[in-house]
Fold each of these.
Amino acid sequence: MRSGPACLAGPVALRPEPMRHFPPDPAPDAEALLLARYAGGDAAAARLLAAQLAPRLFAHAVRVLGDGHEAEDVTQEALLRLWRIAPDWRAGEAKVSTWCYRVVANLCTDRLRKRRSVPLEDVAEPEDPRPDAAQQLQQRARVDALQAALQSLPDRQRQAVVLRHIEGLANPEIAQILDIGVEAVESLTARGKRGLAAALAGQKEALGYET
Amino acid sequence: MTKAEHDDDRALEALFARARSHPPEMPEQLLARVLDDARHLQPTRAGSLLGGWWRMLGGLPGLGGLVTATCVGFWLGVAPPDGMPDLADQILGQQVVMDETAPDLSGFGWDSEEG
């Protein structure tokens, strides 16, 4: 998915995004107000909303997928769905950012599942050997020890650890995003951290911290 | 928590902090594509006004209820049930007679007093 109009014509594997019921957040959702302004025809609102959401969604997708190109597609697709749902958005039911993270999480899960089902020999070689921005980003991610350790975790653990410890979200919000209970989030993040510690064992000196 | 676990936790926290302070850089073209999508999908102001009225009416279920109520009301007006007074007939068919009586000005007695 690269160009705007072309991506609109293709079939969208929309998974319903109903949110697990949690008490509504009493704080006003500034992003929901921007979304309402966008739905009302305010073009500036889209710019503000995209500037706030896109970097966070992209960062999450990169951490989970470990691939800049795929993370770009997932981010674009998630925001495309947001623009589509804007006229029907019901304020107060879910935070816009939580909804977007949920779409990104589902899209990442779908892609990771597909990756596992494609044999390695069927994966096409890259067409252009010149490194572009996304490839450079991918190369940087490859040398990032934390990123490498994250890739060794099971998908759900990785998503939970990234959302909790890198994106800094609270457990109830992560529970909404992953559609699980808060206790399950705590369990996933605890197991994820143990998995990371095991994957990073022996690299402490190389990573520049002393025990 | 053992000392080894505590050390692991501290080490992981340091890595998380570094990851938080160095988020992946988003390509500029991605933002351009996202905004392009937003432009193509943005409802027009006229469309959003109509959409607002449509949602205020309750959408298709609301319109269905409105049409049903209108039809029932019209039918009750045309062919009211036996037990119901025929208001249309009462209003349109009744002859109204207004009996206006002129005031009797001779009752004041000024004419007889003057002779």
Amino acid sequence: MNASPPATKILLIGIGNSGRSDDALGWKFLDTFDAFPCWFDFEYRYQLQVEDAELISRYKKVIFVDASREVIKDGASLHACIPTPSASFTTHKLDPGTVLWLARELYTAQTEAYVMAIAGTEWELHHGLSTIARTNLQKALSLFLDFILHANLLQPKAEAVA
Amino acid sequence: MQKKITIDPVTRVEGHGRVTIHLDEYGKVEDSFFHIVEFRGFERFIQGHPYWEAPVLVQRLCGICPVSHHLAAAKAIDQLVGVDPEDLSPAAHKLRKLLHYGQIFQSHALHFFYLASPDLLFGVDAPVEKRNVFAVAIENKELARKGILMRKFGQEIIQAIAGKKIHGVAAVPGGMHKTLDAAEREYFLNGKDIPSIDTMIEWSQEIVDFIKGYHEKHRIMMDSFAEFPSGHLGMVDEQGNLELYHGKLRAIDGTGNITLPDVNTQDYQQYFAEGVERWSYMKFPYLKELGRENGWNRVGPLARINICNTIPTPLAEKERQAFIAFTGKKVNNSTLYSHWARLIEILHCAEVMRDLLHDDEIMSSDLVREGKPRLEGIGIIEAPRGTLTHHYQIDEKGMITRCNLIVSTTHNNEAMNRAVRWVANNVISQKGAITDGMLNQVEVAIRAYDPCLSCATQALGQMALQVELYNYEGELIDERITSGN
């Protein structure tokens, strides 16, 4: 259930499907941090939807984590999410930038969002990551830790540890 | 020169469909088809799995209405362990109903606010860049915010009972595996963290009032657009009232004559058959007695409002009466009235959820019953889009040997094809230039049925919709494709 989150918490949204090989990368990334609920909230998604705009509007910082079919130098990338309204044929599958745009438009949210993309290679029905994806997941974790430490995103205030 | 128009993919629907419209050399419509081109597979690959896996596996048909498949399968699997619907514990029955009505509430909210409202707010001829939820967000923020929170409320009901908003697990053979505790119940009642159930009722009433106002302003269009006689099928309780979880099947024809007189769901095979066409993976169910040509039925909100005697919650019943008084018809055969009917059901679902949330029995731990195992089970419910049938047979080891799914959208297959034909004949035929607004009206007709095309064919993979225009020599001369990626 969704009570209002502490202001210092970072929302991690993992996008993917654990039944489709490397598409599980977003969820696996989140699993790594589940021992640190004082700093992070976690949401697992198959796809982003319109109502996720309301969710992210309640956080100051959000990281979308998704597997990527693209070849990424260094296996993973982290970049700022740009709010963009983009309509696809369905409104059941939105880009992070579209969700961020909706959050700002509907809720005047000041949410700062980033997208972590992790390169995968296997997408068929299968449980478990490919060897390459496992390697890229480790690279993504290093990249993320460097980022949050460098940006001093983790603020151990009492309200966050409660 | 003869032409063929193709719309591919049809947008703002669940799944991948394609429309083709054939014009003769004078631009007159010769024929039209709504093709469903997704792969059909769940009925087959569930064979060989243990029966208790069915409610978990089959809900993967869909990310929008997995609860409906979960519960229809659960009703069937109950029977495999010897538990009929009336033998469930009161707590299990009420928790399933709460889950089910929460699912319909969120699904209807999604359809109206995200998929249908752009057509209603901006018009079917509006530029394509305005026909989406983002334009709604810009121009009617309050409506968009309420839509989001109504959908969220239903999803949170699902999460509270099933553990997850999508593909959770709530039902077990013979009952439920989890009850609600006092804190979970209070979350939906007190309005502290999310708007309360009373607010959901208030907003549901507001949106019903909105659609009534819309109909008053656009009466001629709403009355005439894709209006054609058809059968209507749905579920009613023992008194003939609207019932969405368990009851009897009733069908009427386009003038209100009973064609299926409140029969037990367990007997569905006596009454229904399914036809096939070479141009679509989606089947065409029909009443055997009336045959393939005359026995097809619409299902879903409009059909349910048409067939029921009353709605057993006061606010929704008042709105049903207003609906009937406005149309002045015993049976409404106008496609676009589906939106109004859907919103009456939203109000009904909110009222039922309120009553269930105030019922202490949803916190009881008496959740599972047992009986004498059987080899066959049939579960039928009213899903958001209409009557949904799950039928399983198992061997002595409990492995599934046969599965038959008649998904709501398949019942609407013939109706959607006729709606497309109506638009082709009345909007496109012999009009010279084919405009984007004309083609959008094809989609408006389909969208009113809220089809779930992936459910209807038990699809795998990515989805989208397509429209094509061909000349008399079979050459593609125009097409519209929306990527499913």
